[in-house]
Please model this.
Amino acid sequence: MHISFTPDAPAMPEISFDDFLAVDIRIGTILEAAPLEGARKPSIKMVIDFGEAIGHKKSSAQITEHYQSEDLIGRQVMGVVNFPRRQIGKFMSDVLTLGFADDAGAIRLIGADAPIPNGTRMS
Model:
């Protein structure tokens, strides 16, 4: 199945509330960020603190159009913490960091408008 990330994309098929609850979306703070060397598309690799229960997880994201690695340290982001690990080049990603595509297709990260304790689950 192809998923379109444009504003005019049709809605996805309806799911049950239990399906939604199965997706574990948490907030965490970026502790480390650096360019992902050897990636086919420019990407940033990150270490994100998702609190005591989840711990520190690695993620990579194609976010270089709007973000510099050094500016991401300390920023809170949302991520899916219960997807299987995924190999991205030589990097193993533990978490799907969440964002939205802007008009040009560049990703803007999702976070909170005020500090939230790391590891808090989206509700």
